[in-house]
Amino acid sequence: MSQISPLQAARATYQPKLPAVLSASGPFAKPVFGKATKSVADQAAIKKLFPDTYGLPAVKFEKGAKRKVKALNVAVILSGGQAPGGHNVIAGLYDGLKALNAQSKLYGFLGGPSGLIDNKYMLLDDAIIDAYRNTGGFDMICSGRTKLEKPEQFDKVIVNCKALGINAIVIIGGDDSNTNACVLAQYMIDKKTGIQVIGCPKTIDGDLKNEWIEVSFGFDTATKVYSELIGNIMRDANSARKYWHFIKLMGRSASHIALECALQTHPNACIISEEVQQKNISLNQIVWDLTNLVIKRASKKMNFGVVLIPEGLIEFVPELNPLIAELNDSMAEGTELGDQFNALPDMDAKIKFVEAHLKGDNLAVFKPLPTFVKAQLLGDRDPHGNVQVSKIETEKLLIAMVEANIKAYNGATGNNVKFSTQAHFFGYEGRCAAPSNFDADYCYALGYNASALIGAGLTGYMSSVRNISKSADKWEAGGIPLTMMMNMEHRHGKDVPVIKKALVELDAKPFKTFAANRDKWAEEVDFVYPGPIQYFGPAEVCDRTTLTLQLERA
């Protein structure tokens, strides 16, 4: 790294906190095994696919005595999108491995899973690790979205790891990346390699969680960054009093980010995808609810407001979900229609082709959509062959539809409701921020804990640090089998094992708290301005967790 800022210099001296058991015993903590576990769904199918890692017990670490451990060679990769704190996971892993045996080595494979396959790596040492402690980003070894899922890929990984004497692989990633870790762990057992595989829970979306994984790392920092930006916009909106701000927030499937930001900032409206799906709320109803809110606030001379929209909303709207599902299946690469579709010269031709082949309700939904939305629905697919909902400008779609309603309302009533708008998408702004104290601590603990799991000889586990709504000395360290989170889903035209995404629960405290207050927030100016993340100062300011976590664990 080159020149660093004064904040970076100060943050470099921050010593992350560890759970008491790891502070006392280091990576020599004693694993205590619980009862056999089972997958969240599709138990028979998951057990058949993962015969050696299915049913493993959950592990809790207790105080243990130092013992002699051979020098270990460990590989680590960052997989998928960035999340604040990734460097601290690596730092914690490094420190834990060196505590097990000073001769242990940590190899950072470059560019994510492709680095493992192509044998591109760097040996991490004190100088490299110290330069990246408590920093944001994944630039130490970078990340990638290559999927580790094919036998020929696994075989290359084995060859590369054997050449370096690798004993274990740590995969830091989200649900898809840890699904790959689960598959890789079983493959390593099948091939009798002796190579352990450990996962770490990363995703700012917050959708990788359960009883043992209370939050995925990066969610805390990202939602604080977004809430600061939303608060700034709210202050501007309340000052200028002439714009409606429609803000789309990251969250590919779940609405955890939107919900947390709503709890922190009190917007005039926040759409929760899971509620839309459960209550079967149509796109037209969403638009009319927003239209009526604009009209009601205008009657109070408040021609301004803030609306939060989750990135994946369009996939949860009842009439749009079947349309997207048909587009995913019928236009998939390798199908007859998909190959014809992909051969067409431009988007106009592709739109006409799709309209000629869609039928019934899906055609009726597709045809009236604005052309820019049609083009985004038919654009480049994600690695699974699915529509990339993140590229659909839902915020602009809602603005256009509300604008049309307001124009019709003004024409019919003779009123002059003003509706001037600004559209925003907050995504990349939060992914590489310097981690909050919480994420700096949590990530370091996850990495250090992973070294203890490796030292205990475990494989097919995810690093788990629990009770994290309390102070760090009360955190509990351990691990859960990756198979515990798995279910079968239909992707790319076939059923495959994947870690089940955790969506917003409408009967849980975070959503109930939001629902109890949203009517008040809708019609008033009850904005909250959280300000920037605080790294230095009183604990109640600097070490606070998200409101979601506080409410869930109250």
Task: Give descriptors for this structure.
single chain; 554 residues; Rossmann fold; 3 domains; nine-stranded mixed β-sheet; four-stranded parallel β-sheet; 15% strand
Describe this structure in words.
The chain folds into three domains: 21-218 and 435-489, Rossmann fold (3-Layer(aba) Sandwich), CATH 3.40.50; 220-311 and 395-432 and 524-554, Rossmann fold (3-Layer(aba) Sandwich), CATH 3.40.50; 315-392, Arc Repressor Mutant, subunit A, CATH 1.10.10.480. It is built from 23 helices and 15 strands. It has helices spanning 6-12, 20-25, 43-49, 86-100, 113-118, 126-132, 151-164, 175-190, 219-240, 256-265, 273-278, 283-299, 320-330, 336-342, 347-357, 360-366, 371-377, 394-413, 428-431, 437-455, 509-523, 539-542, 547-552, and strands spanning 30-36, 57-62, 73-78, 105-109, 121-124, 168-173, 196-201, 244-249, 269-270, 305-310, 421-426, 461-466, 476-481, 486-491, 494-499. The strands form three sheets. It has a nine-stranded mixed β-sheet with strand order 1-2-13-12-7-6-3-4-5, sandwiched between helices. A hairpin with a 2-residue loop joins strand 14 and strand 15. Helix 4 runs parallel beside helix 20 (437-455), helix 9 (219-240) packs across helix 10 and helix 13 packs across helix 16 (360-366).
